[in-house]
Amino acid sequence: MIRFFLLFVSLSFCVPAFAQQKQFTMEEAVLGMNTSLAREDLKQLNWIPGENSVSEVVKTTYGGALVRRRLPQMSTDTLLRLSELQKQLDGKYSLKALPLIEWIDSKEAFFALGNNYFICSASANGWSIKEWKNLPGEAENIVLQKSTKRFAYTIENNLYFVDAAGKTHTVTSDKEAGIVNGRSVHRNEFGIDGGIFLSPKGNYLAFYRMDEHMVEDYPIVNWNVTPAAVHLTKYPFAGRTSHEVTLGVYNPSSGKTIFLNTGTPKDHYLTCVTWSPDEQFIYLAILNREQNHLWLNQYNARTGALIKTLFEETDPKYVHPQHSLTFIPGKNNEFIWWSQRDGFMHLYRYNTRGKLLNQITKGEWVVTEIAGESEKRKELYIITTKESPLDRHIYSVNWESGKMKRLDSDPGTHSAGVSTTGDYVIDRWSNGNAPRIIDLVSTTGKWKKNLLTAKDPLAAYQRPKTENVTVKADDGTPLYGKLIYPVNFDATKKYPVIVYLYNGPNVQIIANGFPASGNLWYEYMAQHGYIIFTMEGRGSANRGMKFEQATFRKLGTVEMEDQLKGVAYLKSLPFVDASRLGVHGWSYGGFMTTSLMLRHPDVFKCGVAGGPVMDWKMYEVMYTERYMDTPQENPEGYEEANLLNKVKNLKGKLLLIHGTIDSTVVWQHSVNFLKECVDNNVQVDYFVYPGYEHNVRGRDRVHLMQKITDYFDENLK
Description:
This protein is mainly beta. Among the domains are: about 100 residues, no CATH class; about 250 residues, 3-Layer(aba) Sandwich (Rossmann fold). It is built from ten helices and 44 strands. Strands 1-44-43-42-41-39-40-38-37 form a nine-stranded mixed β-sheet, with helices on both faces. Strand 37 and strand 38 form a beta hairpin. The chain is globular.
């Protein structure tokens, strides 16, 4: 038997208030950290290019104003008031606050109202505002190169370029639906988040061109209209035909486009696209479809010819490039390359002949970001996990000697905004006890100024105790988690537990940030009598390749063993009711939830699986083949991970949640699972929402989390 629940996004929703007890409402638990319970912040805090100065939008008696603070004296002057901006716009726009203002240089900035762009220019008489460029309303994927004032954008599947004189060039004019220009390719894997690459001086435009003709059509049905409408999308399933991508280079002077000679097979992956600073070359990492062999190639940007392969990287399991090259400031012939070749993500300095000059960082930790650089000190400013996988700290590192120096001093999750001079850093950080702190720090370590210590927006609420937990995997690897106790905890009682998990590749959910619990819904459930436990097992991110690759070719096995170690820890606690364990996760966590319910059916009384993968043969090529190889190469692994053939094992109560228009994990996963339930006379509950998104957001998520909460209440209390 299948019980169906349908979420209509237009329904109103009422949440009971617990104001006297200061418990979270469901809306506060789901949306509060971004709305009514948002942490204090400084608006539009940015470095002014070429100066040791920051700009910030502040409130004044005259309304909002953009001010400048000069370091280290912290002297302040006003640059632009909202009232002044409104006056110069001649009342054409009704603005309640200053728009997002971005600096071009120390004398010019810009802002956009919709697709209309405006220039702000400093003069002796104050700032003048003038219209800059009005882009078409249907323009998408807009890229603005601030230094050269060039624009590029897409309309539908074609690409357009606006030169410094304001002339619009039609770069492509493909009319066939199977050709896509200037957009992200390879389904946003390999660190790809766009398809437009303007050259450093703005004289050329490189772009992805993706041919999807050969990929099978997959129907996505929009049930929000009558009659329902079918949208055919191209979905490359694991082991089946994938798309083909090339990289074009457009020359505005000639109006001509050439394509790089990237060779065959054409279904390989093109990533790490990087222009040389002198615009003579394009560097491109080519990864074979098997994802175990990478070539870093140099191409002639005028002709598209391959000049040479600088070096190759191989791995018996997979190579996972995620970053473009970073050229050493002031040099055309030296760059930084990111690699996990020694087992951890580190930085390497190469010259353009392909010679390794030195490994810049090393150790059993990873670099997560290059935040800036200082040419005069030969330093990069980086974010690392050097102290702990749960923390992020800011370091300077000399790119020749490898000498490192930590620039922050407090435990927690730090991010860095580096001045263009390389002299100062905006250090934004938080930890379990600090909602948000913003410091200005000199990169020499001799000066520091606190700009904000945010008040705790949750201070008036009944908060649960959160405890950091370390569990050992069967090979002794430490696994980090959090145990969230019920409020008014009584050690003599036994409580139901909800295990929340993701545990998929390339994601980390356990960190030292605010709130310490990691999620206010966890705290909502703790206010209503639950213990919440969440832990990351092997396979998740930022712990090195051995940790991540433990699940290679066998997704849903090692991770489950680790999660069951967490369950064993829970059962060892005298206040845990082992007969009332629930499990919940979304996406990969949905796959894990369903796997645990079917492969270890005696552990959990109930589970809630959102957007779950049920059969990896029905997930996309790039992600799946990296971690599983193809179904043809690894039939045993795919069969073992296939949940459709394990339906009859279900003993507990399982609620499936899926969006009918989900184009990431297609609805067919759950539909096929339901068919197996019917064929095997297995009861499962099903909650469907007519949504496009794989991850539900906004008010719809409030409805959804209430349904999930009700389900746990029904089955665990």
